[in-house]
Amino acid sequence: MADPVKRRVLKSGAECADRADLSQALDRLAEAHRDLAEAHATADAARMLLRDAIDSLADGFALFDAEDRLVLCNEAFFGMFPWFESLRHASAVPGPSFLDLARQMAEAGATIGARIAPERWLQDRVALHREARGAHVQALADGRWIQINELRTREGGIVGIYTDVTTVKAEDARQRARELGERNLALQATLDTLSEGVCLFDAHRRLQAWNQGVDMLLGFDGPGRGEGERPPIATHDVLVRWCVERGGLDRPEALEWRVGGGARVVADCRMFADAEGQRHITVRSVPLGSGGMVFTFDDVTDQVRFRRSLTETAETLERRVAERTAELVEVNHRLVAATEAAESANRSKTSFLAGASHDLLQPLNAARLFVSALDGEAMPERPRVLVRQAASALDSVEDLLEALFEISRLDAGAIHPEVAAMPLTPLLAALEREFAPLAESGGLALVVPVSAVWVRSDTRLLRRVLQNFISNAIRYTEAGRVAIELAESDGEVVVTVRDTGPGIAEAEREAIFEEFRRLDATRRVPGKGLGLAIVRRVSAMLGHELGLESTPGEGSAFSVRLPRAEPPGDSLADPAAAGDEGDRSRSGRAGPRGALVLVIDNEPAILAGMAALLENWGLEVATAGGPDDPALEAVLERTPAMVIVDHHLDDGVTGETVVAELRLRLGRELPACLVTADRSEALKTRAAALGLPLFTKPVKPARLRALLRQLEVL
C-alpha cells in the first residue's frame, strides 16, 4: 500500500511544481508583451515625430531603400512633384521604385528635357540618381527650377532633398540680363568711339549692331532720322545696294558675303565723290564662327592725299638732292684740291722742320762739343762752374728741341709704328744700362725685373714711353727707389714704373699729360713738361692703354697695358746679347789707347769742337771736310782706329756712302758711327741694317765715350 500512495503523492507534487513554472512563465510573457507594446508605442511616437519633422521642412524630402524603392516622403515633396499625388494616401510600404517615378515624370512631360527627348531625359535622370554625388538643378516644364541634392545612406539607400530655386534663378536671370545690357551698352559705346564705321550681321544676314561711324561714313545720319534709330540697312543685301547705288562703290566685291569663317579681307575702294574727287574708303570684312559677318569702313582719303603729297615732296626733294649732289661734287673737287694743297704744305712744313732742325742743331752740336772739351781742361773753380752751367743750359735746349721735333713728327704722322712680337727682357736690360748711372748718382735704387714674357708692340716707340716714365721717376724722386714691375692678366701684360716721389694729386693727373704743364711740387726740378705729352701720343698711336696710380707724399705708378704675345719657335734666348755680338763682330779690330780717330764733317766749327773733345780724352784726331778732302789720303795711310762721319755732307753725299767707300779703300770693316740732325725712322733703320751706330745732334759726349770704350778705342 505504501508504494502506490507514495507514487500518487509524488505525482501530485510534480503537478504542483509544473503549474507554478507555467504561471511564472505566463507572468514573464505578459511582461514581455507589455514591454513590446511600450516599444511599439515609443516607435510610433518617434515615427510620428520624424514624419512631423519631415513634413515641417519647406524642402521636399524622399527616402529610398537599398532596392531603390520609396520608403518615406513629406508633403513638400508632393507639392513640388504633383505628378505623384496618387501616392499621398497609399499604404503600401515600400512604395514604387525611383525608375517608376522618373518614368511617370517623363511620360507626363514634367521637365523641359522630358518634353524634348523623354527617353534621353529618363536615362540621364536615373544615372544622376544612382550616382548620388551631390546637387544638380532641374528645369520643370511649368517654369519652376528645382535643386536636387541626393546622397547615399549607410544602408545603401538614397536620401533626396528637393529645393525650389525658382526665385533665385529668376533673380540670377535678371542679374545676367542687367550685366548683358551693361555689356551691350559698353560695347555700343566702344563702337561709337571708333573712327571707323562698323556693322554686324547675324547668320541670317540681318543687321544686329552698328555704330555712329557707319552712319556718318555711309550717309545714314541725314535729316529726319532720329537718334538711335536703326540705319536703313536691315539686311546685308540692302547694305550692298546702298553702297553701290547711292555711294558709287567701285568695288562691290569688297562686300561679298563669306560663309565658314576665314581670314580678314581688306579692300581699298572709292565712293561718295565730292568737290575734290572720290573719297577713298578701306573696307574690311571678317566672317564670324556663328555664321555672321562684320564689315568696317575707314575713310583714308586724307592719308591717301597725304601720301600723294609726300610723293610729290619726295620728287621735289630728289630734284633738290640731285642739284645738291652736283654742288657737293663741285665742293668735293675743291676740297680735294685744298687737301692736296694742305698735304703739299704739310710736306713743305716737314721739309722745313728737317732743314730747320739741321740748321738749329749744327751750331748747338758745335757748342756742346766745345763746352765738353772745356769741361775736360784744368781751370779755376769759377770758370769750371760757368762751363758746367753752360753745359746744363745746352742740355735743356737739346731736350726741348728733341721733344718739340718728336711731337711735330707724331702730329704730322711721319712716324709709322711697326708692331710685332717682341721680348721685354732685352728692352728692360737696355733701359737698366741707360738709367742705372743716373739713378745711382741721385742715390736711388733702380729695380728692373727679368722675365721671359713677350708682347706685341713697336720696340722703338715702347722704349720711348718707358724712357719717359723712368727718367721722370728718377728726376722727381729725391730718396728711395724706382722699380719696374710686370703683371699678367687676361692675355695682357702691364708694365708699371713705380717711384717713391712726391706723388700727384687726383685733380692734377689729367693736366700732366698736356704740353708744357708741370706741377708746382716739381717745378724746381729741371724739365720742359713735354715727356708725358709724347707718351700720350705714342700710346694712342700704338693702341696701348695708359694707367696712373698715385698717393701724394708716397709716390706714383705709371703703367702701360700691352697685349701678350707668344714667342716664335726660333727666337733667341737673349736677343739683346745676340745683337751686341753682332755689333761687335761688325766693329772690326779694336785700337789701342791714343788711337787715331778720323772725323769727317762739312762744318769747321763742329770739326774743331769734336777734335777738342776727343783730344781731351787722349785720342789723336784727324779731320776732313768730305770724301774729296786732300788730307784724307794721308790719314788713311796711317790706318785710323775709327771714323766719325756727319751724315749730310756737301753735294748730297751721305755718311753711309762715305763709310762704305772708306771700308772699300782700306779693305777691312773700319769701325764707324754716323752723326746727324735727321731723326727720321728711315735713316735709323738703314743705319741699323749697316751696323752703324747713330748719334743725333747735339751729340751727348757720354754716349760717344761709351761707344769708344765698347769698341776699345779708348
Main β-sheet: number of strands, strand sense, barrel status? 7 strands, mixed
Number of separate structural domains: 5
Q: Give the CATH H-level superfamily of the largest domain.
A: Histidine kinase-like ATPase, C-terminal domain
Radius of gyration: 61 Å
**Molecular shape:** elongated
Distance between the termini: 190 Å
Helix content: 40-55%
**What is the percentage of strand-forming residues?**
15-25%
- In the CATH hierarchy, the third-tier topology of the largest domain is known as Heat Shock Protein 90
Overall residue-averaged pLDDT value? 79
Number of strands: 22
Instruction: Provide the low-confidence segments as ranges.
Output: 571-593
List keywords for this structure.
5 domains, alpha+beta, Beta-Lactamase, seven-stranded mixed β-sheet, 714 residues, five-stranded antiparallel β-sheet
Description:
- 50% of the residues lie in helices and 19% in strands.
- The strands form four sheets. Strands 11, 12, 13, 14, 15, 16 and 17 form a seven-stranded mixed β-sheet that branches.
- It contains 19 helices and 22 strands.
- The radius of gyration is 61 Å and the shape is elongated.
- It has 714 residues and is an alpha+beta fold.
- Mean pLDDT is 79; it is low at 571-593.
- It folds into five domains: 1-46; 57-164, Beta-Lactamase; 195-299, Beta-Lactamase (2-Layer Sandwich), CATH 3.30.450; 416-571, Histidine kinase-like ATPase, C-terminal domain (Heat Shock Protein 90, 2-Layer Sandwich); 584-710, Response regulator (Rossmann fold).
